[in-house]
Design goal:
homotetramer; alpha/beta; Rossmann fold; Dihydrodipicolinate Reductase, domain 2; 2 domains; seven-stranded mixed β-sheet; 10 helices; 13 strands; 28% helix
Chain lengths: 349, 349, 349, 349
């Protein structure tokens, strides 16, 4: 058993993480911290029977944790990552603070200087299926954003095969409201979201663009695509992201070649669900699981390929992938604590 | 044409009111005020093409309004009611500040003293169908709460006939989220409300209890019921209130007698929709209209009567009834601006 | 390990049952049958990765099952219950066919004669928490209806203590749409249900009334209540039932006495969640779990007690309670396969 | 006043049409027909107080109608269009039967021969803003599909200016469930749609592709685009379509030029709402109105332009545009019966 600490446990991501960790066979929860709600039981904040007492971060000893999960706002995570490392913990940061390798890029997209740039070189971008090598030795893991996870897993096989050289990738993504967090804001109110669909920060504006394009290049090597056009939409559902991705048809490949490429690439992946020909990925394929569902839709009439991918933004897009990364880092079975048996638990939110 | 002013135009109620007033055949909007959003067009706050500029209340002259609608939080409305009266306007208060006749009762239920108790005696409780006489001369109209409207209209015929003498009335009410207002709070977030149903302040706790019991007695005269048990529930819908009301079966009446009583009582009411035998009122019967739908369900096996009533909390439960009261007060057709039969305006185009 | 067979696996209840059984530590699925979909994999009907092939009932041997779950429409279950018993299986009927002990009552409420009345005497009504004795020996278990489960568990402590003698119990229940089943009907269409709330069969009309009143008497013994007024409402959510129950205040008891009664009665129950004073049960407390959440709300001003209870209609209201009954019958830990504490399985990975 | 007849009045489109027609200043409803529901009042099918009796089509005389609206399934409309013309009525067909000019194309996309090909040449495609000339003389008007309306209005200014020569247009569209009609099918059930998002017929498969590409060419003249990639998604909302459209940036134009082009093109259009720079179209901008909202989003970093457009699929996408076409054809003010004052009416569904 290893001991896990969670900083920032009261948001949707922190709570989701605690629910999965609580039933992980190899983990015990050392502490979970909160700011304004320190001192309260978790059950005062959520309709849960998990028996967890929230503590002030000042009252916990980071060295009690073998693994420290940061569910803090970006900006705040930088300081605590260093403290966690100093205390000897493996740090898994679910914020955006360590995803970008270049401090200047971070500063430009997040409108603030990075206070611990020396960590950016060390941080491993935790897109599990594509970073296992590095993850096994990592001290600091930057857990990917929800949108980037849904998009990168869908196009990685093409990038890795050098088939999107110079291409512009269009990703039309739709996300559930939990992605906006639990702090009350007008745009997250039921009446504003219900019976509506709202595109926001579309084109080349959303902060995840920087993260996505960095990793597109990393995955493509010498055959880098030109970049991405990214359009997030706010969906009237609680959870889930569906990305409808448009790429130019890879010259010289048949639809069967393409399907074979995906099938081989993801053959042994427990959490990648490549749907059979004719099926289309929907939110219902992945909500409340750590899976990413992918379906392929050739459009020969227009020399295009459409890839649909779905994940649960709070699981594979956050807490679940963080645990998957922990499993890799500590040598556990990668599926530990993430199999459907825990499903009954993932009820709240 | 009369001139209407709206104080507090940016909440759901204020916005709803403006949308109806904008197409009222006998009204022009003199001003609409906001606090933090003063100076902005309404279209900066809502996806609307209504061309209305929000002003600071300090910058408007109340005397420009023949009728002044108060869409302010309770507490704040008291001061402005007096100012409106001093400026010679008819004041229609959509807050709770002038519904209770007794300042002590107000203080007890709202945890604050009433700062203008002298107005309580004068204010007319604007349950239109039952207060027309008084409304015609009123200077100050207290617009009923949404829950009270749905419950009082449903039981008034029985009370008025003295058939609930000493009875305990059980009202199990379910409301859409717009009733909670537009200020961001945790309990109104999409993720908290969606796929959930939440009873709150149930029993004899909700502030509307005082208002309901006051009016139950007023309607029943010498044959007052004992009182009410009131259970509000938060529904995952944007608009609408449905109240399922349980009363002891009125001794000596047949189901036909009862139906006849309701049919006669509401025979000429344009906004009371008594459903035929066998039909059941649903939210869909009344959402986005000023109607109240009522269906009667005798339970002879248990000597009980169930009455189901529905309204739109923002229309008949707030803005619509306020306009209906204005129509009565100013001698307009009571339906003016509240039904598509405001055909005159359509013909202009 | 025991072998489980499921007849009628393609409805929401059947599918829910298979999902839980698939991860039960002591069960393997022997067969799952369908009518029109026989021969298809389950994944052709639902977005699932469960690898189950649907068979025609004619092609399976009932004797391959130690326990046979009937997820058939009422009427159809009667014949198959007998066949299952003849094949030596323990039969758990999730339909309404064996809940009523009196064939005449069945015929009256279901408008058809019962074809196997001899089984009614033998069938054990599987409200687990109150029938363990009988369940341990049962050959045929009648799994309770969803509404009755939510209502009976909430009032059983009072009935059992003889505190509702002669009382009329008012149950205002609200249910998610999955309770209406998966066969396409107008009333279950998204557009009909969404943004709506619809009471149906209210008063003393719904078929569950017969089942509820039979069990009220069974639980109360010599201190039987008069009966129930029952008002189901269709909620715009997928899962969950919330019942708001009104009973006359039990004379001579204090609020503390009452809370103590419930606390003692349900002290050791793994699936009954008595909420602390001040908390109110919501759907979110129980959706996707086998729990029943109960909160108590005294109304001293009106000598009434309100009890709020919630369950997931597909879990504690159907598939989950069926598995709980199976666990009791076969001597497994009652929680097996119903809580993440089925940790054993997780440890395998 | 003209007399309007409606064939197929019981679906969502037919009902929507009746609600708007009922309050049109220049129209009286001559008849409304139904198949299985003939003889019933409309209120037996919908929670409405519109007093309309449904008749069997055999029992009405088409010559009683000056304008005949066909809300029939494709295939069925062909026969009745001819009959309506023979009876001297102007026929407005809301089905797909007369949208395609080429009978072979129709046969290929609808898998059945067209039984009245001689009408295809005569039928005017009723995209009102772009076909007024022809509509004024039309005997037979083919009302556009909902998806095509949302897409064509958004790109027409570019096509008309010859700016999409040879381009591939990518339209990622999301539609509410009412677009699927009111006949019960599994895919339209609340539980299937709720909390889900489902792409369907994506790429170059959906029948609207043929209609869209025909009109793209018609609007572009000598500067035809290559064609479209079209991806419809089923949204968990009742009404509304949002299309996110990706086109290559028109060479040599600045963002201001582009905005000016749209502003001039649609300057005097009462139902085209070009949003100001910085705003983004959402469903809430147009639901329950006859408007089409359009917002422009240049992506200079990737030489792309994103156009977002929204309509209400039942109004501008069906019944509303049909009335707008009728207004043009009969010389009424184009806004007659379509102004917001009728809004209060558009409540059901």
């Amino acid at each position: 058993m290893i001991r896990a600490g969670v900083l920032g446990a009261t948001g949707y991501t922190g709570f989701e993480l605690l629910q999965w960790l609580a039933y992980h066979p190899h983990v015990e929860i050392a502490f979970a911290t909160a700011r304004s709600d320190a001192g309260k039981p978790l059950s005062a904040l959520y309709p849960t029977d998990l028996d967890i007492q929230l503590q002030a971060v000042e009252d916990v000893s980071l060295s009690d944790a073998d693994v420290l999960f940061l569910c803090l706002p970006h900006g705040a995570a930088q300081e605590w990552a260093q403290r966690g490392l100093d205390a000897g913990a493996v740090v898994i940061d679910l914020s955006a603070d360590h995803r970008l390798h270049d401090a200047d890029v971070y500063a430009r997209w997040y409108n603030q200087p990075h206070t611990a740039p020396h960590l950016l070189a060390e941080a491993v971008y935790g897109l599990t299926e594509w970073r296992r090598e590095a993850l096994r030795q990592a001290r600091l893991i930057a857990n990917p954003g929800c949108y980037p996870t849904s998009i990168l897993l869908a196009v990685a096989p093409l990038l890795n095969a050098g088939l999107l050289d110079g291409a512009t990738i269009i990703a039309d993504s739709k996300s559930g409201v939990s992605g906006a967090g639990r702090s009350p804001k007008l745009g997250s109110l039921f009446v504003e979201v219900n019976e509506n669909l709202k595109p926001y920060n579309i084109g080349h504006v959303h902060r995840h663009v920087a993260e996505i394009e960095q990793e597109l290049h990393a995955l493509a090597g010498d055959h880098a695509p030109r970049g991405i056009v990214f359009s997030p939409h706010l969906l009237p559902v609680s959870r889930g992201i569906l990305s409808t991705i448009y790429v130019p048809w890879p010259q010289g490949l048949s639809a069967d070649d393409l399907r074979a490429l995906y099938a081989e690439t993801y053959a042994d992946e427990p959490f990648i669900w490549l749907l059979p020909e004719g099926a289309t990925a929907t939110l219902a394929h992945t909500v409340r699981t750590n899976r990413c569902a992918i379906s392929l839709h050739p459009v020969p009439e227009r020399d295009q390929l459409i890839i649909v991918s779905t994940i649960d933004n709070l699981v594979k897009g956050a807490a679940g992938q963080a645990i998957q990364n922990m499993n890799v880092r500590f040598g556990f079975d990668e599926r530990a604590g993430l199999m459907p048996v825990a499903r009954a638990r993932v009820q709240e939110v």
